[in-house]
Design goal:
CATH topology of the largest domain: Protein Transport Mog1p, Chain A
Structural class: alpha+beta
Number of helices: 4
Shape: globular
CATH architecture of the largest domain: 3-Layer(aba) Sandwich
Order of helices and strands: HEEEEEHHEEEEHEE
Distance between the termini: 94 Å
CATH class of the largest domain: Alpha Beta
Strand content: 35-45%
Number of strands: 11
């Protein structure tokens, strides 16, 4: 009888020891797992607004362009109705806007006469409200239209520069023709008072 009691006690102690060991093992495993770390939420600030300036040219068109660019209206030019050159003080390349007399009656004839542009990729679009063509080459992007014997061209010599590429897109997308009160012909050699553009207003683009 005493032997049975002793064996039962020993068995009880063994079961208790095994149970205690299992409990401690689970607790150790749980404590060794890394606690999930809370990731801080980084608040992203909105992009700064881009201030746009409006250029109104006596040649009969207006457009917007970003503030901070250098503009050369070439007042010494006695050949073209408009000769604008936009450059960035920190970026290479330039954008030109030209308006000049042309002997070509259509864009197709003008394009076929220019071997450099004729080899580029050509697509149809509109410049303002006029039918136009976009020509893309390895070194430039040109948008051109002809109206009343005048050739208007936007020329971007900055194919690899994202800042001026954005400026070119802004000029193109905001380009509008208007009817000037007095259509001024290009100045002659004796008349050097070539018209210059007017800065009309400043707007902000988000």
């Amino acid at each position: 009888m005493k032997l049975k009691v002793i064996l039962a006690s020993v068995a009880g102690i063994a079961v208790a020891f095994v149970f205690y060991f299992l409990i401690n093992s689970r607790s150790s495993s749980s404590s060794s797992l890394p606690l999930p770390s809370s990731q801080p939420t980084i608040a992203t600030s909105p992009s700064p607004a881009v201030k746009l300036l409006t250029w109104k040219d006596p040649a009969g068109f207006t457009f917007k362009y970003p503030e901070g660019l250098s503009v050369n209206s070439h007042p010494e030019d006695n050949v073209n109705y408009a000769n604008l050159e936009f450059t960035s003080p920190s970026q290479p390349g330039k954008i030109t806007v030209l308006a000049s007399d042309t002997k070509y009656s259509s864009l197709a004839k003008w394009l076929s006469a220019d071997k450099t542009l004729a080899s580029g990729a050509v697509s149809d679009l509109k410049l303002g409200d006029l039918p136009a063509k976009k020509i893309t080459t390895d070194s430039a992007t040109v948008i051109a239209t002809i109206d009343d014997g005048i050739l208007f061209t936007l020329n971007s010599l900055s194919a690899t520069d994202s800042a001026l590429t954005t400026t070119f897109d802004t000029i193109f997308s905001t380009f509008v023709f208007y009817v000037p009160e007095n259509v001024a012909k290009p100045a002659t050699e004796t008349d050097t008072s070539a018209p210059s553009g007017d800065l009309l207003e400043e707007t902000t683009e988000e």
